[in-house]
Amino acid sequence: MVDESKIFVLKRNGEKEPLSLDKIHNILEKACHGITGVSVSDIAMKAHLSFFDGITSKEIHEALIKSAADLITDNSTNYQYVAGNLLNYEIRKQAWGGMNPPRLYDHVVKMVNNGYYHEHLLEDFSEADWDKIDALVDHDRDFQMTYIGIMEYMTKYAMRDRSAKTVTPLETPQITYILAAAISAIDTKKLKDIKSFYGTFSEWDLSLPTPIMAGLRSPTKQFSSCTLISSDDNLDSIIAAAGSIVKYASKKAGIGIDASRIRAEGTPVGREKAVKHTGVVPFFRMFESSLKSCSQGGVRGASATLTACLWHSEILDILVLKNNKGTPDTRVRKLDYSIQINNYLYNRYIKKQNITLFSPSDVPGLYDAMFSDKEEFARLYEKYEKDPKIKKKSIPARELFSIFATERKETGRIYVFNVDNVNQHSNFDVPVTTSNLCQEITLPTVPLQSLDDPNGEIALCTLAAVNLGNVKSLDDLEVTCRNAVRMLDNLLEYQDYMVPAAKTSTMKYRPLGIGITNMAYYLAKNGVTYDSTEGHKLMHDTMEAIEFYCIKASIELAQERGPCLGYNNTKWARGLMPIDHYNKNVDKIVPNVLNLDWEWLREELKKYGIRNATLTAMMPAESSSKIMNSTNGMEPVRSLITNKPNKHHVSKQVVPEFMRLKNKYDLLWEMTTMDGVIKMMAVIQKFTCQSLSTNLSYNPEHFEDAKIPMSVLMGDILKANMYGLKTLYYHNTRDGREDEVTEDKKPEVKQENVPTAEVHAEEACDACAI
């Protein structure tokens, strides 16, 4: 029995007061109020509080939070809300100094003066403006968040001193959302626009990526999640690309590097035939060093995917750069790799022919033709094959693709860039040669010859994702899509640009990437699966609505502000929309029956043009899934309750509506084939301007001797290409360990044979993981 009179608690203000068990009980009663299936006494007992004189109130509260979080099981999932409520009390005490919110204007002044918020917040809005905005805030919405959501917000998104050892947030979620809404409406500053944006953000109709959620009110004005940088085949261009990587990697962007033009080892350099090129690997290592020289403001480490061509004469060396063999001198493990493949090369695999490898510098016109003219590519390729003067290598296509598929399986991190699908089914009349870190962004780039090159183009894409879990009627999507388009387009004007080529490209095309999240829950609550005809039809109609309403919103912006400067370089200028140039093989999955008035929309497009050359892209959404307690992106769930660690904490996440829908969810590792997933992604791709972060996942238990056959691996890659998928992202293999999704970590590359100094924790891109 605790003698309360002999124990004093040290409060946050330094004062002491007698221990009060009633006070602790009252806090737990409040946290559990209205929540079924939870017990105040169970939380108190599990806390195992060993009271001692001088114990702090913070220590008591943290013990209660941990106790509630530890009680989350498949039989008592609602403890996630109790732990969330307790954590909410804690974050309010830390950020507000108590349970009552500060006046918003006073909070903004304090944060601007302390250097956490951008001074524009006080320049663009008056004190009276802030008081009106303050009246819009519903702080009780914070209590809709689960434990994992609040933890994710505190560690990743809340403004705080990131140099401090302890996580001490200086704001609360609703303050973050209202400030994001105010800045997003910077073009009009109208209260009705701020209110609409705030509702869309805070009620989770739309999820925001890390650069926006963590940075929008900060002095760092860079909100584009994805950066695509191309290098030409000369030293000045390579150095400019490396410099651009440093600038954007330091500002929360995930990087895509197109290095496919760089010539092969041993190729003559310039006019001096005696000077031989060192090959691609030293320059890849240079890009790696540029990338890893940066930490993204204490939020995460920088990451990049490098694009290379399958017919490059060093491809056999490139494909193994990620694996655990070799030495640090022969490997570049801290980059991921995406391989450009066109239908001509796939056909060589199908016909069991050879593939000839060249240095791009030795075959004039071949590289450009690969992305712009497939007939010309075939003509030049066969011409150069027969030319005895050109240095080349020949390898059976089956052998080369086997090496490619094996490395993809073993590392999980060799990606696919389907050249013909990317370019035939894009919105652009100019070639697209590369993608971003997570493979959902496909935009034109022009290699820089210097950091100040006025003719270079670095592609940026600014993201958000529609929360399908909140969709009750497809008509609901119009407001969400309109707000997403207007908000993101406004940010293109508001943000800074690290390199002139990035601003040039962004103002030219104004590309947006609006995706979807919570799809597994959406399918479950509608009683359909990834491999069902009904599921494919549901997503066909849903994606049609999203694409239609996004295009409509962008046309409205063009009517108000004018079309993007590069409008004439797009298929939009010819009156063509994604419904006109998708891969028609999708019609074998779902008949092409459209529900909305596309011909009316086409007439509006012809009248006004379009503000944004791209509008949709399907990114991963792992980070925001924790904030909103949703299933991430388009992915099937691995399990109904998942341990999700990052570098600050390990938390349990429970799928939405666990008790009602637990038998309706499609579980990833129970899928015996990827056929349903591939077809579902193809349906989504039909209505997607850019690409999808499509993962293919395999459980060895479903295969003889627990070995995934090459016929399955290559069959799925070919099927994805046939149905029009532009890219493939991760290859996931279940390895028998507990199914954890580590937010900051990509699928692990086996490291057992790597020297200790080479072992590293590789971090995913939270920017486009939203």
Structural summary, described in words:
- The longest helix is centred in the C-terminal third of the chain and has 29 residues.
- The protein folds into 4 domains: 94 residues, no CATH class; 102 residues, no CATH class; 174 residues, no CATH class; 298 residues, Anaerobic Ribonucleotide-triphosphate Reductase Large Chain (Alpha-Beta Barrel).
- 51% of the residues are buried.
- Helix 2 packs across helix 3.
- Helices cover 40% and strands 11% of the residues.
- A hairpin with a 5-residue loop joins strand 1 and strand 2.
- The protein has 28 helices and 19 strands.
- With 770 residues, it is an alpha/beta fold.
Draw up the topology in text:
Elements: E1 8-10, E2 16-18, H1 21-32, H2 40-47, H3 57-70, H4 79-96, H5 104-113, H6 120-124, H7 127-134, H8 147-157, H9 173-184, H10 191-202, E3 206-207, H11 210-213, E4 226-230, H12 235-249, E5 254-258, E6 268-269, E7 272-276, H13 280-292, E8 304-309, H14 315-319, E9 336-341, H15 343-350, E10 354-357, H16 366-372, H17 374-386, E11 393-396, H18 397-411, E12 414-418, H19 419-424, E13 459-467, H20 477-494, H21 500-509, E14 512-517, H22 519-525, H23 533-561, H24 598-608, H25 622-628, E15 641-645, E16 650-654, H26 658-661, H27 675-686, E17 696-698, H28 710-722, E18 727-728, E19 731-733
Parallel strand pairs: 4-5, 5-8, 8-9, 9-12, 13-14, 17-19
Antiparallel strand pairs: 1-2, 3-13, 4-13, 6-7, 10-11, 12-18, 15-16
Helix pairs in contact: 1-2, 1-4, 2-3, 3-4, 4-8, 8-25, 9-10, 12-13, 16-17, 20-23, 23-24, 23-27
